[in-house]
Amino acid sequence: MWTKKHSKKFTKAEHSKEFLRKPHTLKELGNLKGKRLVDIGCGSGYWTRLFAQRGADCTGVDISENQLALARKEEGRKSLGIKYLKGDFTNLKKIKSNRYDIAVIIYALLEIPSKTKINKLFQEAYRILKKGGRLFISDMHPFDPITHARFKLPKGFHYFMSGAKMIAYAKQVDGSLISFKDYHWTFEDYFDSLTKAGFVITSLKEPRPSPSLVKKIPYFKYRIGLPKDITIVCRK
Question: What angle do CA 4, 70, 164 make, to 5 degrees?
Answer without folding.
Answer: 55
